[in-house]
Amino acid sequence: MPPITPMVRNLIILNVVMYFLSDRLFPTELFALHDVRSDLFRPHQFVTHMFMHGSVMHLFSNMFSLFIFGPLLERYWGEKRFLIFYLITGFGASLLYLGVRSYEITQMQELVAAYMQNPDPFVFRDILEVHGSAANNTAFLRQFQLNPDNPAIIAETKAYAQELNQRVLNGAMLGASGAVFGILMAFGMLFPNTELMLLFFPIPIKAKYFVFMYGAFELYSGLNRAPGDNVAHFAHLGGMLFAYILLRLWERQRNNFY
Fold it and tell me: 20 to 30 A Cα–Cα from 118, which one of 4, 50, 100, 141?
């Protein structure tokens, strides 16, 4: 493990400072990334969301990975190019995330619009499933299925459907995970045979295999997301994808870049 390098150190400090000042100076509503259709969206969020985190463990896991894998890449590229790589992969992660999120939001909006026209218990169930809250409302859904023409229940479900629609629309992405997964991808591509020792499974594994397995896990998790899973798996994949593209582009200009 190489000593910490200047840009890695500065990024860690910035992330830590923004986390502990998030309630007072950097509120999530203003600095996390929202869908462009949300009233909370601001263009600067494409950058600021990379330095926001939702919990201490979220912050620690990202900064620990940056601390482990970042210094060697910074020494290989230099400070400026390392920062460029970090920002581009983080931005790319947000683009893929917003694309997937846009589909989910559109799906929810269409379901809610259909439900407002025809308040059917099965459509309401679909709305709950898209939001991931079906398991928490089984009793209420059962009551609605037994009383599908009850005006009070219909009014309550319409209000709840609109509330869920707003929650989905105003959902936010935050964290350095996209950029960190980009760094992980670059490490696996540039130093593929470096052996890593995992914390929880103390078995040596080459970086290229570790990156492949991690990417496959994220793809599986993104395509088979469990209810209540709020991890932005496709943002992680976006960071890895943009890292791959960027490295291939830089490889063509190797004499000028390295």
Answer: 100
